[in-house]
């Protein structure tokens, strides 16, 4: 059997700039753009762009950086994760090819730096340094802006520059790109993949959507942090506090975030973008929470982000977490371990190696084994309180699997919150027992099933409840590779 195993670590800027451009404003590559040279792992020599029947191209994207040194080195923030995956790839690819005769795979990886990337050239008149893009607020002088995402704002510049990095690091012939973003990098990856503009999903053609196969977010800043859903420690207005105090110093990198980033983080939500990618491409949303100091939020968080702000309803995985009003809600996504926000990027963190290993395993699972997605999801609340030893009606959820997909077992994931009498009394709790879940037909073509809940924990009271459910599927061939086009 003929096998092609070509491993590269990126493409040169001079030879590999793509011809599609973000929106209608292409920009020439600057001569001094940082170049991530492609390297053949077996020889250490520079090589041309990876070619082969099936390409898999990984692009690692950093989060916010708040000092000059961090910005200049931002592309290195996920180096340990990138190296761990690259080290595994030869054997993973060889094993995959051995079990799929006639299939050849070409792998490449690169790391983006949005602070040194080609800028849009649209900036406030009082902020001409392109590395200060996180300062670009709505209403800055020299700009006509009404919201984050308009040209001349931080949100627009993050999106524009990610596109320029995709074009710089991968040639126009490169496809099957998997964007892997940490923190703000996770949000912007979903936004570019979903053609998100000022008006939301589908309102800005960034010119690279067809080349993106999947998005992975790691402790991603998916939801907007201004939401009343999240309880901040000591204040109620995230954006104002972010702009006007140093309370956030050290939580999102050394120093204080820029005012434009504060607006982007607080007033813009990436939930719709993440949902679009989850439904139309593939995603793996890695979320975490543990005890971190300092922490910006009450309840479960990774110190920098609330647990529930790191995912979206069409991110596979449901986890219960404390919510405002002394109740519980759902955190969507796959909990990959007990890690603080920067554990994955901080080599000095005692849990760093564990975070890298856990994220590596999740990304490799997505590519080779199970490209899981959410087919349907929803929320159901009881219409009447359930007495002790009583049960809810049986709820039927889900439907046929998407074409080419098969159901996972069990077909349904469901969690819930049991509501106790009174308001804000702190007695609500996550449901830990009493669920009866059944899957639909076992043929694999149906992604449905039923569930009911029995109230078996409180003999003295009846209780209402709210349930959060997902039905899930994966390609019939298993991992992302099985559905990627050749060429």
**Which strand order spans the largest sheet, edge to edge or round the barrel?**
1-3-2-4-5-6-9
How many helical stretches?
9
Number of strands: 16
How many strands, what sense, and barrel or not for the largest sheet? 7 strands, parallel
Rounded mean pLDDT score: 87
Question: How much helix is in the residues?
Answer: 10-25%
Return the structural class. Answer: alpha/beta
Order of helices and strands: EHEHHEHEHEHHHEEEEHEEEEEEE
Compute the number of structural domains.
Answer: 2
Uncertain runs: 1-35, 37-51
Which oligomeric form is depicted? single chain
Radius of gyration: 23 Å
Shape: globular
Helices, strands, pairings?
Blueprint: E1 5-8, H1 13-16, E2 54-61, H2 68-72, H3 79-99, E3 105-111, H4 154-169, E4 177-182, H5 184-193, E5 212-218, H6 238-244, H7 259-267, H8 271-280, E6 282-287, E7 318-323, E8 327-332, E9 334-335, H9 352-368, E10 373-381, E11 395-400, E12 405-419, E13 429-430, E14 435-439, E15 446-453, E16 464-475
Parallel strand pairs: 1-3, 2-3, 2-4, 4-5, 5-6, 6-9
Antiparallel strand pairs: 7-8, 10-16, 11-15, 12-13, 12-16, 14-15
Quick gist of this model?
The protein has 487 residues and is an alpha/beta fold. It has nine helices and 16 strands.
Notes on the protein architecture:
By secondary structure, the protein is α/β, with parallel strands linked by helices. It has two domains: 5-368; 375-474. The chain is 20% helix and 22% strand. The protein contains nine helices and 16 strands. It has helices at residues 13-16, 68-72, 79-99, 154-169, 184-193, 238-244, 259-267, 271-280, 352-368, and strands at residues 5-8, 54-61, 105-111, 177-182, 212-218, 282-287, 318-323, 327-332, 334-335, 373-381, 395-400, 405-419, 429-430, 435-439, 446-453, 464-475. Strands 1-3-2-4-5-6-9 form a seven-stranded parallel β-sheet, with helices on both faces. Strands 10-16-12-13 form a four-stranded antiparallel β-sheet, with no helix packed on it. The longest helix is centred in the N-terminal third of the chain and has 21 residues, at 79-99. It is globular and about 65 Å long. The relative contact order is 0.11.
């Amino acid at each position: 059997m003929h096998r092609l195993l070509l491993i590269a670590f990126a493409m040169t800027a001079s030879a590999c700039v793509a011809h599609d451009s973000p929106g209608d404003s292409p920009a020439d590559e600057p001569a001094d753009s940082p170049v991530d040279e492609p390297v053949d792992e077996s020889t250490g020599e520079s090589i041309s762009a990876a070619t082969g029947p099936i390409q898999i191209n990984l692009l690692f994207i950093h989060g916010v950086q708040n000092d000059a040194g961090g910005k200049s080195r931002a592309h290195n923030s996920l180096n340990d994760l990138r190296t761990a995956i690259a080290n595994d790839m030869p054997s993973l690819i060889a094993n995959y090819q051995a079990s799929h005769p006639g299939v050849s795979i070409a792998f490449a990886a690169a790391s983006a730096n949005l602070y040194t990337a080609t800028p849009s050239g649209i900036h406030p008149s009082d902020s001409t340094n392109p590395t200060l893009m996180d300062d670009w607020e709505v209403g800055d002088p020299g700009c006509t802006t009404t919201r984050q995402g308009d040209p001349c704002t931080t949100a627009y510049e993050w999106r524009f520059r990610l596109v320029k990095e995709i074009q710089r690091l991968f040639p126009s012939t490169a496809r099957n790109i998997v964007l892997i973003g940490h923190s703000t990098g996770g949000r912007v990856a979903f936004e570019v993949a979903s053609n998100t503009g000022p008006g939301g999903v589908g309102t800005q053609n960034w010119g690279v959507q067809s080349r993106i196969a999947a998005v992975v977010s790691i402790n991603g800043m998916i939801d907007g942090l201004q939401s009343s859903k999240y309880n901040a420690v000591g204040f109620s207005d995230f954006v104002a506090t972010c702009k006007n105090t140093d309370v956030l110093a050290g939580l999102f990198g050394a120093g204080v975030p820029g005012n434009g980033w504060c607006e982007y983080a607080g007033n813009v939500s990436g939930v719709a973008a993440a949902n679009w990618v989850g439904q139309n491409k593939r995603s793996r949303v890695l979320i975490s929470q543990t005890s971190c100091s300092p922490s910006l939020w009450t309840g479960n968080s990774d110190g920098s982000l609330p647990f529930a702000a790191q995912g979206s309803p069409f991110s596979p995985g449901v986890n219960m977490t404390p919510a405002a009003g002394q109740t519980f809600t759902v955190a969507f996504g796959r909990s990959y371990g007990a890690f603080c926000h920067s554990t994955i990027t901080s080599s000095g963190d005692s849990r760093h190696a564990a975070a890298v290993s856990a994220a590596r395993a999740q990304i490799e699972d997505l590519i080779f084994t199970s490209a899981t997605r959410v087919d349907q999801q929803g929320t159901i609340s009881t219409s009447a309180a359930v007495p002790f030893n009583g049960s809810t009606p049986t709820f039927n959820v889900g439907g046929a699997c998407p074409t080419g997909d098969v159901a996972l077992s069990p077909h349904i994931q469901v969690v819930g919150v049991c509501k106790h009498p009174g308001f804000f009394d702190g007695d609500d709790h996550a449901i830990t027992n009493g669920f009866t879940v059944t899957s639909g037909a076992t043929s694999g073509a149906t992604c449905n099933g039923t569930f009911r809940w029995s109230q078996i924990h409180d003999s003295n009271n009846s209780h209402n409840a709210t349930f959060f459910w997902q039905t899930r599927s994966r390609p019939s061939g298993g991992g992302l590779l099985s559905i990627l086009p050749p060429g």
